[in-house]
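Q: Is it fine to ask for two folds in a single conversation?
A: Yes, each is treated on its own. Send the first.
Q: Here.
A: Result:
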Amino acid sequence: MTTIDVGRRSLIKRATATGLLTVPALTALSACATGGGGGTQQVAEGRKSARNPLAVNESAGLDVVIFDGGFGEEYAKAAQAEYVKAFPKTDGKIKHSATQKIQAKLAPRFNGGTPPDLIDNSGAEQMDFGTLVSKDQLTDLRELLDAPSLDDPNKKVRDTLRSGVLEMGQFEGEEVWVLYYAYTIYGVWYSKSLLAKHGWEYPQTWDEMLKLCAEAKKQGIAGWTYPGKYPYYLPFSLYPFIAKIGGRETLDAIDNLEPNAWKHDAVKAAFEAYHELQAKGYILKGTPGLDHIQSQVAWNEGKALFIPNGSWVENETKKTTPKNFDMGVGAPSSLDSGDKLPYGTIWASGGEPFIVPKNAKNPRGGMELLRIMLGTKSTQNFIQQVSSLSSLNGGTEGLRLPPGLASAQELWKKAGDNVVNPRLQDWYVTLQKEKIGVAALGEMMAGRMSPKECMAKCQKFADETAKDSAVKKYRHK
């Protein structure tokens, strides 16, 4: 999901196909970045004021494209309505569209020099952020970040964001090219009511995890399931597990494409632990053939106790989740007392990446809509509609949160500083999803590859990417 992100999200975050970019699409996008054809003249700036700090043209139209995934599009429409209230002359001039085919729909527009003003660049077909950045196709969002926040003019937008969100939009230098709107808590998701029914508790150690899975198997319940067709969901719990065992530096080395990063003892221990789930028959039968929806439905039906996922899962499964399910999320279990980070360490980061194209007709309008979205009203609407936190640091005050989101927020608060944010999924999407996710982890968890072979395969893929001059490289600062 990076480049990004996640995926479906940023994510990642929740894909319906394994390919992120086709070769023809990437070629087209590169072509547009080196010149393209046509082009649209940008609208004139408006008058800058306390009410209009970004100098938006108050009568210009706005063109918005939203990824139609687990979060839907209604939250964006509601924010657009607030935009019209702020600038009444734009009434009837907001062009809104939603699609899962981000790359297919928008590459031609980038090629022609007529991209939208604001894009939710997410999903399985999101455009590659590395390419967009390296080809100078995006607007630097620092002017937005330095503008007064919607709710408190004494605070800059950047000062209202959750920790790490701003940095995720940086690739090198101080420029911020992407603003992640959602805030995703990753972990091991489960039904609190199902565990309580059997007198079980969430396992805080790996020995307890194996013991619980063994007991569940006797009751005809699998320990785990996951989207076998899209096994790049596995890192949602596996990566913070690796960091917990070996420290943050293990993930940093992986992100930096360092030689032998995948051969670290922490990686070996984590891979062997997850492989043991498969070897002992604790994975739901048929999981390698399930997509994300099918695995989540099976989990909702109580066929498996645990599933690695992000906090969008509550909204995405709301049609199949039983009323008494009482969804919860747990941090990766501790391997043993030698772990470098404490129990409660999680992966949490921005999701749902928004971009403002440099050649958009109304880029200031695109940034202003983001400023509105990061206000309390739009944030609370987002939280209530899609059961997810936003990147605004707050917004939950006075709201009754659904079980999964309440659990996620509690987990995040307890984690404190023990939050990691792997960047592989937004720096090197193809490497993360198709290679490490599908061709390595997917094969290991399907029982077709040993942990040792999986480690070697991951390192091979990382080394190939490191040596590929066509792939722009990024490093932790």
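Q: Second one now.
A: Result:
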Amino acid sequence: MPSSPMRVLLTGASGFLAEHILEQLLKEGYFVRATVRSEDKRRAVEKLHTGAMLEVVIVPDVSSPGVFANVVKSIDYVVHTASPFHLSATDMQAEMLDPAIKGTTEILEASAKEEQVKRVVLTSSMAAVIDTPSIPGPAGKVYSEKDWNSVSIEQALAHPAFAYHGSKTFAERAAFDFMERTKPKFDIVILDMPFIYGPMKNQQSLKSLNTSSAVVYSLISSTPSAGVPPTQVPLWVDVRDVARAHVLALKGGPEIGNKRFLIHADGTYTFGQVVDIVKKKFPHLAERLPTQSGAKVDGDGEYSSDNAKSKSELGLAYEYNLEHSITALVEDLLAMETSTTRE
């Protein structure tokens, strides 16, 4: 008699990255219990995965006390992706900090009460690593897993961008503090990513694009006179590689436990390179693209990062280059644009 599949709880399952993680988990043969915030999102996720070993449940607010108590029952592994990523918050505490920090501690507290949970994988961000208050900082800085953003709570409460940086930084620190304080039976693996590009599997509209996709759409909806904007973060990764990293984090042995990993493609990039790819692959968009001045854009290449640990310890092979990633994303954006026009 075949053994029953391992059971994974995936939070925030309707997100851009989470949908890719969900697809890969199902392909790997896991049973997935997925959380979403609303009935509409529940139906959308179920529609994409008809007949799969999938249960979708609604969790309206991940920061509510005890919200994961029942959801984590009979679960072997947890992948926690649910956390806001936008730069339009007006109440930094309620919209950014609380969902990230309390959402993380709530999922850890619930998991600690379940004997079966073996590992919790937390989706974080390079925003917790790159020291944004000091950018551009010393030229040639190479970030690693040892680095932490120095953003303060005062800065996080004062500005939406710092609120996002703070939300990721404080949530990661809260996770490590929880592990040290309570010493649960499970371990954690934290994955830190920069901008994530690639195809969209989840249900989005041009008005509700995730932040990384919205950046690319703004580039292909510009004008030649506008000029290419500064590349605030010269690091990127394909969403399919990030999803694979999450699966590998579940499968990895105890040696990767209670560690953080930087997940990003080799080298650095600029928005100018993105524009060049679009111009090459979609020549009919030429009149919608900003023109490069040829001058170095402020901030480009001032720092880089080392992803060696993700390769050597997680075993992650980065399969997609920038052209693959941007081409797939722009194809989806243009299809979405066409669909919007027809409505």
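Q: Anything structural to flag on that second result?
A: Two points. The chain has one domain: 7-199+235-267+304-319. DSSP finds ten helices and eleven strands in the chain.
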